Each structure stands twice: as C-alpha cells, then as structure tokens.
Amino acid sequence: MNTVDRFIHGFDGLLRTVTRVKPEAHNPSPGRGALDDPMTEDEIKLSGGLMRVNHTGEICAQGLYNGQAVFASNPETAEALTQAAAEELDHLAWCRERLDELGAKPSLLDPLWYTASFALGAGAALISDKISLGFVHATEKNVERHLKEHLKRLPESDHASRQILKRMRDDELRHGEEALSQGGEELPKPVQRLMWEGAKLMTTTAERI
Prior knowledge:
Oligomer: single chain
CATH topology: Ferritin
Order of helices and strands: HHHHHHH
CATH architecture: Up-down Bundle
CATH class: Mainly Alpha
Radius of gyration: 16 Å
Shape: globular
Number of helices: 7
Strand content: under 5%
C-alpha cells in the first residue's frame, strides 16, 4: 500500500473502533473448545475486566502500528508494520469474542486510546524508522509483562481466556524480536519506564471503564 492507502486504512480502524464494529479473525480463537469449569459471578466479573483490558490493548496496537506505517520512510518497514497490524487483528477479534462470551463490554474509552496510540506511532515514525521499530520492541515487552500478570490473576477455571492470552503472549514476543531484527533501535531505559507507566494508566482505566 502507498501512503494514502495506509492513512485510509488507519482512519478506517478509528471508525471501526468508534462504531464498535466487530473484527473478523483470520484464525480461530485459541479459546474455542476449551472446557471452562463453572465460574462464580465474581470470577466472571474479574475475567471480563481483564479481557476488556486486553481488548483495549489490541485497540492500541492497531492504532500504534497504523500510525507508524503511515509515516514510515522505508516502504519495507511500512509493509512490515502493516503486516504486524494484520496479525494483531486476530488478537483483537479473539478478545472481543471472549468479552461477548463473558457478557462484558469493551471500554468506553477505546476511541481515545486508538487515537492516542496512532499519534504516538506517527510521532515515533517521524523521528526515524529505527526509533519506530524500537518503539514496537519496547511496547511488546510491556505487553508481555502485562499478559504474564493477567495470567496470574485469571480465575483458575477460566481456561478459554487463559489459552487466548498464552497465544497472544507468544505472538507479542515474536513481534518484538522481529522489530529489532528489522533494524529497530532499543530505546533507553528511562523511556521504556515511561512507556510502562503509561501502559499501567491504560490498563487501570480500561478494567473499570
């Protein structure tokens, strides 16, 4: 895709987020077929809150990758980012499907998070492709850390959500390593720390709203 196509694709992502269009997965959810044990109302509420956070995280991933792809200076980098966004779309669809199964709703602030992530991705790309890809690596490290915490917090009986998060964790690790192999520059520790604090703000807010 050329720059105009990528921008249209990114804006389409915002419209879909605002209008709550359900994404379609290319691959079936890892949670399908999992035999869930009965859960209490409190456990269902906990799982729903955690999966809402993960759904919002995937909204952010779409915004970030699309923003980076639009302003990437190297066409190969732009293509790699667009492909990563397409793969992450499965994660978004899986989380939305699980939210529906748990009777939970997406975060009301998803459009805000998409827009902010798109702006961050665009800003990183405008600095350089190396910084942009380094931003991907740092983001995926944060996502991995956050998924590990959620795997500990999930009710033991929620096997479906657990299978989804495990698959997502493996994919995020791969995306982070690919970003470095494509020429990404590892960001300074203070910047990574700031990104982690920002991610915690998102997760805390999305779990409740």
